[in-house]
Design brief:
Helix content: 25-40%
Radius of gyration: 26 Å
Number of strands: 19
Length: about 260
């Protein structure tokens, strides 16, 4: 009976963790480039069962399941046209490189803008990195930074600007697009930002495929997530009822069985 109580309780805890992941996927589905997360559930290892059996108090509390890890699905999302010249999407493999607190991180969210210093930045204000460092769209020495500019970003990530009334374009940098031999080693920091895992070194791509005026939507399917949420809740409720029934039976065995009539 103790084993049944423990299995039901651990099942409720596990379903609670799964529910948090599903809720997070739904909440972040609107973030460009967001990659959905899938919890991987497995039974407790035999070593854990053995260690529990060695305890007198937990002698029967074995089995159960738990979330062993969280898997990021790097499947590409749909391309959405925005007509914003600073919105960029990577076709195929690759990640934009951004700078957070002087450290490099990686994202598929190409919804960029220009900060007060004339630099290309993410929605959170993080610097977008080029092959020579931060990308400066507007020169800080210019006397009239408000003048209209046409920003052109090639399919390989070269960025150039053309000032209104001038025929010549000026190249200001090239996006630092990187790839990884094993993207499963990337570690999610939330939203759509990743850090390279141990043994996963970024490799600069010479010829990435960049689409200007587009963003990559998240790969979350809201309908699928809602179905998973409902199914998960039913499993949780099943474990909850089982736990309640076993608890009641256990109480009766203590209070009624063996009672002298």
């Amino acid at each position: 009976m103790f084993e049944g109580l423990y299995n039901s309780a651990s099942g409720m805890v596990t379903q609670g963790k799964i529910q948090e992941v599903i809720s997070g996927n739904i909440a972040k589905a609107v973030i460009p480039g967001y990659k959905r997360i899938v919890p991987v559930v497995k039974s407790f290892d035999r070593e854990l069962d053995i260690s529990l059996k060695e305890s007198r108090l937990l002698n029967d509390q074995v089995g159960g399941a738990d979330v062993s890890r969280y898997h990021t699905v790097f499947e590409a999302g749909n391309m959405k046209a925005t007509e914003n010249p600073l919105d960029l999407a990577i076709e195929g493999e690759g990640f934009f490189t951004i700078n957070i607190n002087d450290n490099e991180y990686y994202t598929r969210n190409g919804r960029f803008s220009i900060n007060n210093e004339g630099q290309l930045v993410t929605p959170e204000g993080y610097l977008v990195m080029g092959d020579g460092g931060p990308i400066e769209i507007i020169d800080g020495n210019e006397t009239n930074p408000a003048v209209t500019r046409r920003i052109n970003i090639s399919s390989t990530g070269d960025i150039s600007i053309q000032v209104a009334g001038q025929n010549n374009e000026r190249k200001v940098g090239k996006l630092k697009i990187v790839m990884f031999e094993d993207i499963s080693k990337l570690q999610s920091l939330g939203q759509s930002v990743f850090t390279a895992g141990r043994g996963s070194d970024p490799q600069i791509m010479d010829r990435p495929r960049i689409a200007q005026g587009y963003v990559e939507e998240s790969n979350v399917n809201i309908l699928d997530e809602m179905v998973s949420m409902i199914a998960n809740m039913r499993i949780y409720e099943t474990n909850q009822r089982a736990l309640s029934n076993m608890s009641n039976a256990y109480n009766r065995s203590i209070n009624e069985i063996g009672r002298v009539s």
